[in-house]
Design goal:
The protein has helices at residues 43-51, 60-64, 84-95; strands at residues 3-12, 16-20, 24-28, 31-38, 69-79, 116-118. With 120 residues, it is an alpha+beta fold. The longest helix is centred in the last third of the chain and has 12 residues, at 84-95.
Length: 120
């Protein structure tokens, strides 16, 4: 059984300032973003939780998504190993994006500067 990775593409219609405990107050400029994460065998539950309105805030993305409009959810299934970083970096290159918040969603990662990419 392989690993499931997901990407949530969302649009911020305006600049937002949001409080995230690890980062304090951050400013995110309007535009299109993609967040990459792993959900193991419960990837659909993880995605559903992220996009739910009423929830206890846990992951970094939980604090930012309420300000955005989800436009696409992509699931990459049955990868031979947990390669969310590879998918994240490929997306970064594909869109010539940038990492707006160093360490966002990647506190347990030694490969990526962030698992949040601003692509427009």
């Amino acid at each position: 059984m392989g690993y499931d990775i997901y990407q949530i593409y969302f649009y911020l219609r305006e600049d937002v300032e949001v409080f995230i405990p690890r980062f304090n107050r951050i400013l995110c400029r309007k535009g299109l973003y993609v967040y990459t994460g792993s959900g193991g065998k419960n990837v659909l539950s993880r995605i559903s939780r992220h996009i739910r309105k009423n929830k206890k805030m846990h992951w970094h993305i939980d604090y930012l998504l309420p300000f955005g409009k989800v436009v696409l959810i992509k699931i990459i299934r049955n990868l031979p190993e947990r390669n969310e970083c590879l998918i994240n970096l490929e997306t970064f290159r594909k869109f010539n994006g940038h990492f707006p918040i160093f360490g966002f969603g990647s506190s347990d990662c030694r490969t990526c500067p962030s698992h949040l990419i601003k692509i427009t």
